[in-house]
Amino acid sequence: MKNKFGIDFDGVISDSRAVKQQIVQEKFGVKIPLDLTGYEAVMKNGFITNDQYQELAVLMYESEIVMETKPVTGAVETIGVLRQSFDITIITSRTQIGVGLAKRWCEINGLKDIGVVGTNRQEKTQALEGFEYFIDDSLKKLIPLIGLVPNLYLFSWPYNADEEVPAGIERVWSWKELGNKLEL
Ligand SMILES: [Mg+2]
Predict the structure, then answer these.
(1) H or E segment at 48?
(2) In a shared domain, residues 152 and 135
């Protein structure tokens, strides 16, 4: 049996930075630098409030605009290789509407027949029971998984570069680096 490998969607497979930047500008009149569009960086810099960010998440991840996001460099190719050795599931915090859009996005972008599980904005601990590997760009999502999932990776961007990564989580800066670590 293949080991189970979980992969977050937004910020790991789909690069939502440009679309997020566009919505924040249109909706709230604030221009966020592309590299600071992650939740932690947005909060730290006070670009918009937490409530506005939640509103952004609904607009962003539950409407057609999210179909315009581009794949993260190397994601589609590396997942294609990973699928030969691992049982891959996308584990996202999106709601069911967002999951449907993610499934469609995967079909269009070269990731056919991949499982997508949504946790409806809740923690991912339950969804990741029995998984050996998980990668996410949110440290907040990874921390509760320490001790539960043996191999945890923080997909890194300038927006999470300042976060201190605790033992049990490893940083990777690209799909290429992850592929090298896993000796694909
Ligand atoms: Mg993410």
Answers:
(1) none
(2) yes
How would you label 146-177 residue by residue, b for 16+ Cβ within 10 Å and e otherwise?
A: eebbebbbbbbbebbeebebeeebeebeebeb
How far is ligand 1, taken at its centre, from the CA of residue 1, in Å?
28
Q: What percent of the chain has pLDDT over 70?
A: 100
Q: What is the pLDDT of residue 113?
A: 95
Between the CA of 132 and the centroid of ligand 1 the distance, in Å, is: 19
Number of domains comprising the chain: 2
Q: What is the DSSP letter of 115?
A: E
Are 120 and 54 in a shared domain? Answer: no
Residues 51 and 123 placed together within one structural domain of the fold: no
Half-sphere exposure of 112 (CA within 13 A, CB side): 1
143 CA from centroid of ligand 1 (Å)? 14
Q: Which domain holds residue 50?
A: 16-68
Bridge-based pairing state of the strands 14-15 and 70-71: antiparallel
- Model pLDDT, residue 99: 97
Cα–ligand 1 centroid distance for 52 (angstroms) = 18
- Which of 46, 68, 90 is the last residue before a domain boundary? 68
